Amino acid sequence: MRTLIPTLVFLVLASYCHGQVEQDKALHFLGGNLFGLAGAGIAKQASEGNRIWTFVGSVAGSTLIGLAKEAVDAGQRENGWDNDDLAATVLGGVTVGVTIDLFSKKDDKKRLRGRYSQLDLKKQKPFPYPKSEFVVWDGNLPSLNTLGLTSISL
Asked: Which end of the chain is least crowded, N or C, by CB within 10 Å?
């Protein structure tokens, strides 16, 4: 009952807000969702489940299709480039990216699925610094001219 009443109130208010959005923007949002989903799937396969690349793929997929659609619209007489349409398309991709990240977090053992980075700090050994010695001639370090580097700027 706690969640039922706020959910019903939200749905009633959302139905009134639907009239404020143009149908064209809603279609661009839906197109951004679909192509963002395709971009996220491709990026997830290519990056072996890296969550950041999955999100980037989602946004990139929707951005590419939004730019392509607006480029086609810009070439038409009765239509033109519309930044609001492009924003609605990219927002569709961002929405899909966030949704995928929220709902695909855990596997069967309740551990995070995928990584933010491929770097594993536990397995890395400290970097072995080489022992370097300075070359000293007559008690002085060599100058840049001696090393072949001149002070003449290009």
From this structure: C
Burial of 58 (0-12, 13-18, 19+ CB in 10 A): buried
State pLDDT tens for residues 26-40.
888 999 999 999 999
For position 40, what pLDDT does the model report?
92
13 located within any domain? no
This prediction's pTM: 0.59
Residue 128 lies in a domain: no
Q: Note down the domain range covering 27.
A: 21-103
Q: Is the distance from CB of 39 to CB of 63 less than 8 angstroms?
A: no
> In a 10 Å sphere around its CB, with 0-12 CB exposed, 13-18 middle and 19+ buried, how is residue 153 labelled?
exposed
**Does residue 91 belong to any structural domain of this protein?**
yes
Q: Is 139 inside any structural domain? A: no
Kindly give, in sequence order, each residue whose CB lies less than 8 Å from that of residue 60, ignoring residues fewer than 6 positions away.
Answer: 39, 43, 93
Residue 127 C-alpha from the chain's centroid: 31
